[in-house]
Amino acid sequence: MTLADLKAIVRTVPDFPAPGVQFRDITTLIGHGAGFAAAVGHLAGRARSAGAQAIAGMEARGFIFGAAVAVQLGVGFVPVRKPGKLPAATIGVDYALEYGSDRLEVDPDAIAAGTSVVIVDDLIATGGTALAAAALLRKAGASVPIALFVIDLPDLGGAERLRADGIAVDALMQFEGD
């Protein structure tokens, strides 16, 4: 399937979660067998080209795409979790949200020093979570050359924030506006 075909499968839900927001819902894409397989295939090809030795995905939708990409490449998957979800000792980073803060954690034993880890997630908006994940992976000893997304919302500036941090960004599709 072409990228235009995939974009046509993504549902737009107006006024969710607030009036004026156009929510880009990937539920329709992951529920479409051929579309989901094609999206994962496109992401896997880009991760392979970037020299991925492991794939990391953020909870929760990054797990869906990231784990599938890791399987296609035959590499490990590193889950970047919300606090208190991992049974072993963890390292973490706190990061700012629009109204507060949050934290991400990872098992440092899940990443060998110097491993090239590609971040995969469903969507990049402001980039805060992806930047925090990259900082955490680097803290664990990984290099993070690129972050891959199904959807980029370029008007929110997240991709540019990642690029300013030295991380290449690629997305299968873009939606202008919120």
TrEMBL record:
GO molecular function: adenine phosphoribosyltransferase activity
Enzyme Commission code: 2.4.2.7
Name of this chain's protein: Adenine phosphoribosyltransferase
Pfam families, per the entry: Pribosyltran
Pathway terms, separated by semicolons: Purine metabolism; AMP biosynthesis via salvage pathway; AMP from adenine: step 1/1
Main enzyme class: transferase
Subcellular location: Cytoplasm
Cited SUPFAM superfamilies: PRTase-like (SSF53271)
Free-text function comment from the UniProt entry: Catalyzes a salvage reaction resulting in the formation of AMP, that is energically less costly than de novo synthesis.
The UniProt record lists the keyword Metal-binding: no
Family according to the record: Belongs to the purine/pyrimidine phosphoribosyltransferase family.
Reactions it catalyzes: AMP + diphosphate = 5-phospho-alpha-D-ribose 1-diphosphate + adenine
Domain Phosphoribosyltransferase residue range list: 35-150
Species of the source: Pelagerythrobacter marensis
Description of how the protein assembles with itself and partners: Homodimer.
Highest taxon, organism lineage: Bacteria
InterPro entries attached to this UniProt entry: Ade_phspho_trans, PRTase-like, PRTase_dom, UPRTase/APRTase
Keyword field: Cytoplasm, Glycosyltransferase, Purine salvage, Transferase
Main location: cytoplasm
